[in-house]
Amino acid sequence: MTATDRWLIAGLGNPGPWFAGTRHNAGFAVVEHLAHHAGTRFHLTGPRHRTTEIDLAAHPTLLAKPLWTINQSGPPIAALLRTQRIAATHLVVIQDDLDFPFGTIRLKRGGGPGGHNGIRSVTEAIASRDYLRMRIGVGRPPKGQKLGSFVLGRFSEAEQQQLPDLLTRCAASLETLLTSGLDHAQTTLHTPQPVS
């Protein structure tokens, strides 16, 4: 197993306790969920990120939380790709997405930032759109609320009750992605499941 066979899964978010549980930190929530269920914790690896190693679906995987602001996520992620010798094609970036209702999960490769400055920073820093993205829907703010206060606000009480299931589905989708590839993961994730 060479270093290039490893995966890097980076959750986007803002560091610090004040931002914990906010919509903009959905990416952090997913990688924290993965680490918790693998029985490991994040540790500081330099001034730019916290990381931990897990096996995800039998694949050696580095989980990362960049420690710069979410809008400056690119340089820390680029540094990890470089120092850990991981290809951009083996990078998954997890982000919040205003364009999908809460609870929606979408997978794609590349594409434009769609107004997400964290994604713009990653694309510019690694000079590639070959990486994979998991987009977690957080919905749109109610009328009269600004976007900034909405994404930096915490999930509603009803949404918080649904978060455990959402995080479990995110983890399962990532396992499918690493095991069976993007096409199969998209088909599995995006096809409505029958109600039992």
TrEMBL record:
<dbReference type="InterPro" id="IPR018171">
    <property type="entry name" value="Pept_tRNA_hydro_CS"/>
</dbReference>
<feature type="binding site">
    <location>
        <position position="71"/>
    </location>
    <ligand>
        <name>tRNA</name>
    </ligand>
</feature>
<feature type="active site" description="Proton acceptor">
    <location>
        <position position="24"/>
    </location>
</feature>
<feature type="site" description="Discriminates between blocked and unblocked aminoacyl-tRNA">
    <location>
        <position position="14"/>
    </location>
</feature>
<dbReference type="InterPro" id="IPR036416">
    <property type="entry name" value="Pept_tRNA_hydro_sf"/>
</dbReference>
<feature type="binding site">
    <location>
        <position position="117"/>
    </location>
    <ligand>
        <name>tRNA</name>
    </ligand>
</feature>
<comment type="function">
    <text>Catalyzes the release of premature peptidyl moieties from peptidyl-tRNA molecules trapped in stalled 50S ribosomal subunits, and thus maintains levels of free tRNAs and 50S ribosomes.</text>
</comment>
<keyword id="KW-0820">tRNA-binding</keyword>
<keyword id="KW-0378">Hydrolase</keyword>
<protein>
    <recommendedName>
        <fullName>Peptidyl-tRNA hydrolase</fullName>
        <ecNumber>3.1.1.29</ecNumber>
    </recommendedName>
</protein>
<comment type="subunit">
    <text>Monomer.</text>
</comment>
<keyword id="KW-0694">RNA-binding</keyword>
<keyword id="KW-0963">Cytoplasm</keyword>
<feature type="binding site">
    <location>
        <position position="19"/>
    </location>
    <ligand>
        <name>tRNA</name>
    </ligand>
</feature>
<feature type="site" description="Stabilizes the basic form of H active site to accept a proton">
    <location>
        <position position="96"/>
    </location>
</feature>
<dbReference type="Pfam" id="PF01195">
    <property type="entry name" value="Pept_tRNA_hydro"/>
</dbReference>
<dbReference type="GO" id="GO:0016787">
    <property type="term" value="F:hydrolase activity"/>
</dbReference>
<comment type="similarity">
    <text>Belongs to the PTH family.</text>
</comment>
<comment type="function">
    <text>Hydrolyzes ribosome-free peptidyl-tRNAs (with 1 or more amino acids incorporated), which drop off the ribosome during protein synthesis, or as a result of ribosome stalling.</text>
</comment>
<dbReference type="InterPro" id="IPR001328">
    <property type="entry name" value="Pept_tRNA_hydro"/>
</dbReference>
